[in-house]
Structure formats: structure tokens, C-alpha cells
């Protein structure tokens, strides 16, 4: 079952006893920021400390089916926020990446969008900053061309405006240098190719790396000279 099924969070057979008072609340042994709620001394549901405080839950609190559903929704929100922040602590993510990962975990879409809005407003999610870093890293460390970077950013849901700003940080001279660097690294491979096939091999190789055809054709004579020297 996925997390958008509320019954996954609590014991249905205990919930059937509601409305009833909480008979006890215990701190969980392995996770001290979470608490176990009991009805008639039977475990019903585990909640975060934030949920406990939000609903002012204590022993003898009257727990109704409606209140239980509110608690479940609050726990969904807490889980998703923790999950999204954990992802962002590992590396920057585009908003669409976070949404897709949370949906694959089975979290409710409406809650996801609300939390993504909150994290965006607070600056945890910044698509432009993400696009700039992604562009820099893929160009600098993977020798990707700007066309390939653009396609990947589109897939991640980055706006055309933010994509262009990110790509504009790479000067044309650096694109040329990157192409020459790639050819130099693979010089022996191209030298083994028959001379009449070499031009096509170079073109196809650079096209796969994401460089645009106009730039490749402009540099081709110098690239072939570098290979042959």
C-alpha cells in the first residue's frame, strides 16, 4: 500500500473503537521525536512531536474518527516535508524532480504541491539557482554541450527564461575550448579511423555530447588538423 492510503498509518481494528479517549501516550524507543498513541491500551498510531503539539494530544483526549483523519493528514504533510528536505540536503533539486520523486513514493499530490509552494517561498527550492549549477557542473565536469544541457533542463521542468540565463553564463570561447579538449582526449580513437570517415565520426561524437552543428562545422577544419598532427 502507498502512503496515500490512510489506513496504512493506523490500526483499523483499534480505529473502529472510536470515538474513545487516549489511554496513554508513549515516546517511541528508536525515534524519540515520535510518539505512540493508544486507545484502550492498544496501539493506534504513531505521530511526530509536531503533530502531538499541533492537536494538543494528551492522555484522556477524546479521539474521534474525524480527528484521526486530521492527524493522518498532518502526518502525511510531516512525512513529505521531511522527505523533501532530506532530498534537498543531499543536493539541489528542481521543483519537478522533487514532485516526481514524492509522487513515486505514493504521497498525495495535493499535499506535495502545497509543500513545494512553501519550500519555494522559503528559498529551499530555486529553479534558477539549480539550472545555473546544473549547467556549470555538466559543462565543466562532463563536457556536455549546451544543447544537451538545455534538453535535460527542459525535462526537469525549468522555464525557458531560467534555462537561457543559465546557458548564457557559458561564454562561446569556453564552448570552443571544451570541444577541442574532448577531441584531444579522444585523439587516438579518431586517428584509428580511416581519413575519409574521420569527419563524420568527429561530427557524430560531438553531436551526441550536445554541441550544436553550426559550432561543430565552424571548428571542423581545426579539429581535423589537431587529430592529424
Description of the structure:
The chain is α+β, with helices and mostly antiparallel strands and 229 residues long. It has three domains: 116 residues, Winged helix-like DNA-binding domain superfamily/Winged helix DNA-binding domain (Arc Repressor Mutant, subunit A, Orthogonal Bundle), CATH 1.10.10.10; 41 residues; 56 residues. Helix content is 62%, strand content 10%. A four-stranded antiparallel β-sheet has the order 3-2-1-4. Strand 1 and strand 2 form a beta hairpin. Helix 11 crosses helix 12. The longest helix has 26 residues. It is rod-shaped.
Topology, please?
Elements: H1 12-15, E1 20-27, E2 34-39, E3 42-48, H2 49-54, E4 62-63, H3 65-90, H4 95-104, H5 109-121, H6 127-142, H7 146-155, H8 160-167, H9 172-185, H10 187-192, H11 195-208, H12 213-228
Indicate the CATH class of the largest domain: Mainly Alpha
Supply the CATH superfamily name of the largest domain: Winged helix-like DNA-binding domain superfamily/Winged helix DNA-binding domain
Major sheet characteristics = 4 strands, antiparallel
Write down the domain tally: 3
Oligomer: single chain
The topology string of helices and strands comes to HEEEHEHHHHHHHHHH
User: Helix fraction?
Assistant: 55-70%
Q: What would you call the structural class?
A: alpha+beta
Write down the Rg: 27 Å
CATH architecture annotation of the largest domain: Orthogonal Bundle
Q: How many angstroms separate the termini?
A: 63 Å
Strand order of the largest sheet: 3-2-1-4
- Mean pLDDT over all positions: 93
Number of helices: 12
What fold name stands as the CATH topology of the largest domain? Answer: Arc Repressor Mutant, subunit A
Report the strand count.
Answer: 4
Shape: rod-shaped
Low-confidence stretches: 1-7
Beta percentage is 5-15%
